[in-house]
Amino acid sequence: MAIKLHGDPRATCYQRVAFILAELGLPFETVTVSIAKNENKSPEFLQLQPFGKVPALDDNGFVVFESRAICKYLANKYAVPGARLVPEDGDFEGLALFEQAASIEQSYFDPPSSAYAHDKIYKKFHGEETDEAAAAASLATLDAALAVYEGMLAQRQYLAGDRLTLADLFHVPYGVVVKAAGAQEVFDRYPRVRKWLEGMEARESWRNLVGNGREEVV
Hints:
It is a single chain. Helix content is 56%, strand content 8%. It folds into two domains: 3-85, Glutaredoxin; 92-205, Glutathione S-transferase Yfyf (Class Pi), Chain A, domain 2, CATH 1.20.1050.10. By secondary structure, the chain is of the alpha+beta class. A hairpin with a 2-residue loop joins strand 3 and strand 4. It has a four-stranded mixed beta sheet, covered by helices on one side. It has nine helices and four strands. Helix 1 packs across helix 7 (172-188) and helix 5 (132-153) packs across helix 8. The two termini are 30 Å apart.
């Protein structure tokens, strides 16, 4: 029985999980759940994800939802020797720094990035007018966060140390969307941040995902 990823391939949270599946070299089947058609609110999908949000993962009968939780599960169960994306159990300092970095992404990067994408892309997709003031405020919040990132990356190669982890890779889907929405300059202001993000975008796992027709909407 294959790993099945239920979700909308255009959604950033789906992309986050698909990216990690590819990074781990895990084959999987996409079960498309169209947000535009409201399929995420269907009784069938709500059996997998009772909040009606994509994605949900079915790994041989074990179902888990919430994209970051899915990724942590996969990275632990299918860890690649010598290239773990989460620290090993017992590495208390490494785990603390990893969870700190993961919390930074979810607390300081994702909210302004998703809000900016909502105003600049999602509203247009649904025929609504962009709230330029709200978008500018979100971008300013993101800019302030990236200034802190720049300082952190001056001291280490990645957010949790000198080894790539999920906490870094989690940034890629929304980072790409924000740039595509017209905010490349916010990353260009911070050369270490730009190099860090571009390095992850250049990974074969992400390039293959892009090459398979991924669309950038939220």
